[in-house]
Each structure stands twice: as structure tokens, then as C-alpha cells.
Specification:
By secondary structure, the protein is mainly α. The protein has 8 helices and no strands. It folds into 2 domains: 63 residues; 63 residues, 434 Repressor (Amino-terminal Domain) (Orthogonal Bundle). Helix 3 runs antiparallel to helix 4, helix 5 runs parallel beside helix 8 and helix 6 crosses helix 7. The relative contact order is 0.09. InterPro entries: Cro/C1-type_HTH, Lambda_DNA-bd_dom_sf. One of its GO terms (molecular function) is DNA binding.
Length: 145
């Protein structure tokens, strides 16, 4: 069933920046993936803009915990610095290898403590290191198939 706004002078077909907090709340609680995608795209463009502010307000009142968590995560992701995104990507890639830090460190040519410093964000990894971890993950997946 398509999202419909009640008691608002805008429709879900209008730009998200016109929905306001009430429209956002309706999308969180009664909307679907297409509605959430519109919100996510808007907050990626302006993570601290008016749409993000309306979303924050709506998230406080939302009843649908699942969709609220999805949109809260999207907002947090949009507000990450480039450095934070690199660290988050490295953590995900390391997790996907399903290896201990010691084993992964050995495979990529570093020490466990150095890998830990990358994963904790204490030291910024090089693009080459991130790519080596991604390659280990690809190799591990192909070994399992």
C-alpha cells in the first residue's frame, strides 16, 4: 500500500524537503523502502540540513523501531567524516574475512597490534592496506565456495 499523508498539505510525491517532521514520521511508521530511500538520498546531500533536522525530530516520535533504526543509521553514516568511513569499511572487510586479527594481520603483512590500531581508528590505514584486506576477504569467500 502506498504511503499517504494525513492532515498535511503535501503528498509523498512532493520533494522530501517539503514533508516536514510530520511527513517524515508518517514515512517512518507507515512508509516503505521507496519512501525511506527518498529520505536517505536527501540526508546524504545535506547531513545537517533541514531534512536531517526534520528526520531527527521524527525519529524521537517514531513507533516503528526497525525503520527508525535504519534511518538513524543512515543519518549517522551521512554524518561520518571520510576518515570514519574508511575505518568503518576496514572494520567490515576485516569482519567479513572471518579471521582472527592475528591471522588477518599475517595475511596482509602487518602485526596484530598494528592492525588493531587501524581498526580502532588510532592510525589511518593506507588505501593499499584496505585493498589487501578486501582481497583476503575475496580469496576467503572463493575458498569457501
Amino acid at each position: 500500500m502506498a504511503l499517504r499523508f494525513r492532515n498535511l498539505e503535501v503528498t509523498p510525491e512532493d520533494p522530501v524537503d517539503r514533508w516536514g517532521a510530520e511527513g517524515m514520521l508518517a514515512a517512518i511508521d507507515r512508509g516503505g523502502v521507496d519512501d525511506w530511500r527518498k529520505i536517505i538520498l536527501a540526508i546524504r546531500v545535506a547531513p545537517y540540513g533541514p531534512v536531517a533536522a526534520d528526520l531527527e525530530e521524527a525519529l524521537e516520535l517514531a513507533e516503528s523501531r526497525g525503520s527508525a533504526q535504519l534511518l538513524r543509521s543512515a543519518l549517522e553514516g551521512a554524518r561520518q567524516t571520510p576518515e570514519q568511513r574508511v575505518i568503518e569499511r576496514l572494520r567490515m572487510l576485516a569482519f567479513e574475512t572471518d579471521m582472527s586479527q592475528g591471522d588477518l594481520a599475517a595475511r596482509i603483512g602487518t602485526s596484530r597490534t598494528r592492525l588493531n590500531s587501524y581498526l580502532s581508528g588510532a592510525v589511518m590505514p593506507s588505501a593499499a592496506l584496505v585493498e589487501r584486506v578486501a582481497e583476503v576477504g575475496r580469496t576467503r569467500r572463493s575458498e569457501l565456495v
